[in-house]
Amino acid sequence: MNTFEGTGIRNLKVRSGIYYWRQKIGGVQYSESLQTGERDEALKRMAEKVGAVKSGEILKEKKMTKQQDTSAGWVDFWPQLKVLDCTIRDGGLMNDHRFSDEFVFGIHKALVASGVDYMELGYKADKKLFSPEEYGLWKSCDEDDLNRFFDGVEKGLKFSVMADVGRTNESDIVPREKSLIDLVRVACYIHQIPAALDMVKDAKDKGYETSVNLMAISTVPEFELNKGLEMIGRSETDMVYLVDSFGSLYFEQIGDLLRRYIAAMGEGKQVGIHAHNNQQMAYVNTIFAAIHGATMLDSTIDGLGRGAGNCPTELLLGFLRNPKFKQRPIIEAVEKWTHPLRQTIDWGYSIPYMIAGQMNQHPREAMKLRESADKDQFLRFYDEVTAQ
């Protein structure tokens, strides 16, 4: 399932209904998604890419002839790369954001000590929609609650929250000078972009850093994505996130999407990556994105996040090589906080999440299975999902 298949045409492959161009030219191997399921359109795009390479419009990678040249790029680091840890926000989706105070303080202490740039506290969800009796305080991140919780505590890094379109009351986002929050990340689906940009403007006018997190990107038709990115690129947002909500994307697809995002944002806007680990690709896709132009990198300690989880912070910091980042506090947090949590919360790679990712589906059904008495009935789940 989801391997490259032949098409009868040289250098044209197909995977999950999407065509890919895979060809070696001048000693350089090219492998790129053509972002279409139409055969004639794929042939046209493949011909354009081949022509661009042969004319020199697409820069060829340098061929490494010495072993030391191959590894030289991993000695240095890129200071522009920022890490946003969303352990509490994404992990809270597995327990209705009901973390103990000690747990949140422990995660905060570890992130500050590790040099991570941002800690995402949770959501700015409307309490009329998400009752405080049913959800922990990190679901709404009420300003009074935050002030009480962090009273006397040195922040040590920037705080962010996520504001979902349709689930956030803009009046709950107070002026920046009255808040502990630094960054408001507006999450939306493709059809919600106009509403998301209104929220961005509101938050920006109040003094916050802002981002647009465009969710479920693996399900968005190409023409809609292009128009949506154009709108975001013209907006006031500081950054836009490529979000692999279903953990279904491979690095070739990440690369193609990232080029589109970067081109649409132009000067002065950052591009970020938020990956899920359904197919064990969260770490790979995150570092691939970092190498190819993304500067905001999401991660979670021990991969704690919805369903299959996210790119592990401890892995990411080790890759980045920046001496400001320290792995030891994160590993200590895994031992003390997240590893014991596995006794009560089930997250991380498993067969049901893999199946959902490969089928490009939301993991809600896989999550229901993993929370049931039949959580290890993998084959039945596979048969049910693939029969749809």
Would you mind describing this structure in some detail?
There is one protein chain. With 388 residues, the protein is α/β, with parallel strands linked by helices. The chain folds into three domains: 75 residues; 260 residues, Alpha-Beta Barrel (TIM Barrel), CATH 3.20.20; 36 residues, no CATH class. It contains 14 helices and twelve strands. It has an eight-stranded parallel barrel with strand order 5-6-7-8-9-10-11-12, surrounded by four helices. A hairpin with a 5-residue loop joins β1 and β2. It is globular and about 65 Å long.
* Approximate shape: globular
Total helix count? Answer: 14
Radius of gyration: 21 Å
- Lateral arrangement of strands in the main beta sheet: 5-6-7-8-9-10-11-12
CATH class of the largest domain: Alpha Beta
What structural class do helix, strand and pairing data support? alpha/beta
- Give the % helix: 25-40%
How much of the sequence is in beta strands?
15-25%
Major beta-sheet overview: 8 strands, parallel, barrel
Distance between the termini: 15 Å
Along the chain, the helix and strand elements come as EEEEHHEHHEHEEHEHEHEHEHHHHH
Which second-level CATH architecture of the largest domain applies?
A: Alpha-Beta Barrel
**CATH fold topology of the largest domain:** TIM Barrel
Whole-number average pLDDT? 91
Which stretches of 5+ consecutive residues score pLDDT under 50? 59-68
At the fourth level of CATH, the homologous superfamily of the largest domain is: Aldolase class I
The count of strands amounts to 12
Count of individual domains: 3
